[in-house]
Write a structure and sequence with these properties.
The chain is mainly alpha-helical and 494 residues long. Helix content is 62%, strand content 3%. It contains 24 helices and 4 strands. The strands form 2 sheets. It has a two-stranded antiparallel sheet with strand order 1-2.
């Protein structure tokens, strides 16, 4: 004989709450448990049902006796006694429908005078889609954005600290032209700043819905809710419900919300994950034994290898980059959710339950980096050693451009590439010195070299000065970072 809802409630009440987040238990930022911890998910659905009661009260549909029951104590009681696990159990044993399961649970907790108005006149995805958006928005403002701003501030400090620390630039895994450590960090910080601004903008486009089974407000119109809302408040009934939740409706919906706003929002999280992965990839490579320009913190009892006690593996960088792979794969699920048959189908409803993984894994990356960035070490000796390896080649671009500016009639790039570079490799002298030496053997070339201003010749022989605007650009990005953190440090602008 099937159990009653009351019996199921009594059994589940004895069990501890399940607060796991999407994904592997190793990668579970506790900061997101209030939003995406499993047994907390249903709280946002309760919040939408509560907003519905409040809107029904506003338009005069909810009886006075029921309105009097809408107290904060009752709201807390619903939160405390309802879990997603309980909802699942009632669904599986009785209703075979998740929202009808929630309604049956609410009926067990609240007075019958209020219970009868539960879910009137809602459809399941008025509740589910809207609840989902509330969770994403709150997680962003209360957890993700503060973490992003903290990381931005930490990276900004590193940019300023190392703005003049010389570093050989790299392209294609090869030494290129001089930059500074601060400039390198600023290039990634700039990407994070851009993504953060877009995240904030895309968050504002996240909307709720309360438009019924096909999105046309059919029952709301027939039973006068729409008319009462317009007459008394000059707004739609949907707007009244959603304003209780701090949301606005989309321009139109079917039974479900249009997928694009959430997809764009989660895409920005995916881009953020990618930028954090880029930082991790750079740091992992720069920590290689042969390069050794930076190092992540290594705690007193930490082991780098189970077999080789001397190793210090870049575990944070590897872990952060690995999370980026997971996030990219998770976003593919979002793309699958762009289609549904007619008004909607159930094909992607299970898939959408995993969308929060994008936020969870990106948050894990953020917290990983927040933990280590203050303590990363820079190795001046390695930076100097690596710079010296190709010091004599570092001004190659400037040498061939100087030749063009001075009137050289041949192929200046070819001269540097095919003549000066081999000579410099052999002599270990810089390209400018080799140019001067070659000019001493060639009267026509000598005339060209004499046209190169002395200050340019001097710079060509001092590649550590060939850093262009690296310092200026790094400080510009540091300034932009400070502006962003100052603007949003207090949270959402009201």
């Amino acid at each position: 004989m099937p159990r009653t809802v009351a019996e199921i409630i009594e059994e589940i009440r004895q069990k501890p709450r399940r607060l796991e987040l999407p994904g592997n238990p190793r990668y579970q930022p506790a900061s997101l448990v209030p939003y995406f911890g499993y047994d907390n998910l249903v709280r946002f659905q309760i919040e939408v049902e509560w907003a519905l009661w409040k809107a029904l009260a506003k338009v005069g549909i909810l009886p006075v006796g029921a309105v009097a029951l809408l107290t904060e104590d009752l709201k807390e009681k619903l939160y405390n006694e309802t879990t997603t696990t309980l909802q699942d159990a009632v669904e599986k044993e009785i209703t075979r429908h998740d929202i009808r399961a929630l309604i049956r649970i609410i009926h067990q907790i609240v007075d019958p005078i209020l219970a009868k108005w539960t879910h009137f006149p809602a459809t399941s995805y008025d509740i589910i889609d809207t609840a989902r958006i509330i969770a994403y928005k709150r997680a962003f403002w209360e957890v993700s954005l503060p973490s992003i701003l903290q990381l931005v501030s930490l990276l900004r400090n590193k940019v300023i600290e190392f703005v003049d620390t010389l570093q050989i630039g790299r392209t294609h895994g090869q030494h290129a032209e001089p930059v500074t450590v601060g400039f390198w960090i600023a290039t990634i910080l700039s990407r994070i700043l851009d993504i953060t601004k877009n995240l904030i903008e895309k968050e504002t486009k996240l909307v709720g819905k309360f438009s019924g089974p096909v999105g046309a407000y059919n029952a709301q119109v027939v039973f006068g809710l729409e008319n009462l809302a317009q007459i008394n408040f000059g707004r739609t009934f949907e707007e009244l419900v959603l304003e209780e939740l701090g949301l606005v409706p989309g321009p139109i919906s079917t039974q479900i919300l249009s997928p694009e706003p959430l997809a764009r929002f989660l895409f920005e999280y995916t881009l953020l994950s990618g930028a954090l992965s880029q930082l991790a990839l750079d740091c992992r490579n720069l920590q290689r034994t042969e390069i050794a320009e930076i190092g992540e913190p290594f705690e007193a009892d930490q082991s780098g290898s189970s077999a080789m006690p001397y190793k210090r593996n870049p575990i944070t960088w590897e872990n952060t980059q690995g999370m980026g792979i997971i996030v990219k794969i998770e976003f593919f699920k979002v793309l699958e959710g762009l289609l549904s048959e007619h008004q909607r189908d159930l094909i992607t409803s299970s898939v959408m339950r995993e969308f929060p993984g994008i936020v969870v894994f990106t948050q894990y990356q953020l917290e990983n980096l927040i933990r280590v960035i203050p303590w990363i070490s820079i190795n001046p000796e390695a930076l100097g050693r690596n710079f010296e390896m190709t010091r004599n080649m570092a001004t190659g671009e400037a040498v061939y451009l100087a030749l063009i500016m001075a009137g050289y009639q041949g192929d200046a790039h070819h001269l540097v590439n095919q003549t000066l570079v081999p000579r410099a490799h052999s002599s270990k002298q810089n390209l400018a010195s080799e140019l001067i030496g070659l000019a001493a053997e060639d009267q026509e070339l000598q005339a060209v070299v004499e046209n190169i201003p002395p200050e340019i010749i001097k710079m060509l022989q001092r590649p550590e000065q060939f850093t262009g605007r690296a310092r200026q650009k790094a400080l510009e990005i540091a300034g932009a970072a400070e502006q962003l953190t100052d603007q949003w440090a207090g949270g959402r602008i009201k």
